[in-house]
Design a protein that fits this description.
By secondary structure, the protein is mostly beta strands. The chain has one domain (2-406): TolB, C-terminal domain (Neuraminidase, 6 Propeller), CATH 2.120.10. Helices cover 2% and strands 41% of the residues. The protein has two helices and 35 strands. It has helices at residues 181-186, 277-280; strands spanning 2-4, 9-10, 23-25, 31-36, 41-46, 52-56, 61-69, 74-85, 93-95, 101-105, 110-116, 121-122, 126-130, 142-143, 151-156, 175-180, 189-190, 195-199, 206-209, 214-219, 226-227, 230-231, 239-246, 257-258, 264-266, 286-288, 303-305, 311-316, 322-327, 340-347, 352-353, 363-369, 382-387, 393-397, 402-406. A hairpin with a 4-residue loop joins strand 11 and strand 12 (121-122). The longest helix has 6 residues, at 181-186. The radius of gyration is 20 Å and the shape is globular. The two termini are 23 Å apart. The model is unreliable at 6-21 (pLDDT under 50).
Length: 410
Amino acid sequence: MVAIHPVVVALLPLIPSALGQTCATINPVNAATFASGYEGPRGIIFDIQGNLLTAEQSSYGLRYIQLTDNGGTNICVRSQKQLVADSSLNHGIALTPDGKKLFASSKTTVYSWDYDGTTGTVGNKKTVVTGMSTSGHVSRTLLVPKTQPNVLLVQVGSNGNLDTGAAQASSGRSQIRIFKLADLEAGSKAYTTGELLGYGIRNNAGIAEDIHGGIFSVNNGMDDMTVNGKDVHNTNPCEELNYHGRINDTSSPERGKSYGYPTCHSIYDPSVLPSPFNTQLKVGDTVTNGASSSTCTRVAPKLCFPAHTAPLDLKFNSGGSAAYVTFHGSWDKTPPDGYRVSRVAWNSQTGQPVASVTNTSAAQNIMYNANNAACPSGCFRPVGLAWSPSGKLFLSSDATNEIWVIGGAK
């Protein structure tokens, strides 16, 4: 069962139902599934007509869902169909702001289609980005920024837990690159030919744009961490919120810079470090894996989240006062942690989080399992987030094959 803040009560049991047969009645402090029976839903987006598109990882491809939203009191699936049948697609999905160009990704390739949201149809598939790593983290997050809609951002994670080659930007791993849409229309491009937005980010699966055009990502830190021979992995390193500058500002000091991986890692719990680091370091400070405290030339994170909670998506509300983060949950931690959706207070004027990097309470949990004992395989595991045209926050849960809608998120 799933609980939601501020009422903190268990809501709907995660019982499979026929897709298209469930309606969700919601209120400002509630959440509900409106349909289940998907096939590992990951990335989700709304088109400008208000239809929901999903990228599903279990050999399904992309789905097109028409919704009925009656004044915000109930939501139903009116119809749904397979939009693209492609078993290689596994996570990433994006639309241009005009709703006419659709992008989706496999582990090696980004594809595009001409898209018609009214009819729910696509044109011929076109290969636009090639040559991405085939091992390790295989999800590829995609984003077309609203403030610079003529580019596509493409993320690639590491090829393993500690990918030493990712220290080099030329590796094409653990980084975000920028591609001009006009160049992609002219022909496919190798991933490493894109402009480097940032690198040294182990697996920044969630990328979002704030109201000022600032690009932020949430990063999954390494597993099995040791410092000077001591195992500190259960509560370290932190999962990071990183800032990459404003997408339309090529002079941003963060542009093209390293965020430290695989050498430098941000501490979440200094108390478990060996002496003297347990008293010298604070949350967000840097250590070198397997070694000691290190001064690294890198862009430091803006926030630290608990270790191994696996943030996978990030979305800002329309006023820029909050960011929402999905935490897919841990496998490398006892007891299991994550499996929740959290809200981070944001300063809409500065375009930065309200809390400092040392604040371990910046993420306020709003939706989570009442009990994580069945995790990771038998519980709610959020992945993708999307705002509907009417201002409701939707999210996918791949482990339970569901799409949820949260009432009152703002």
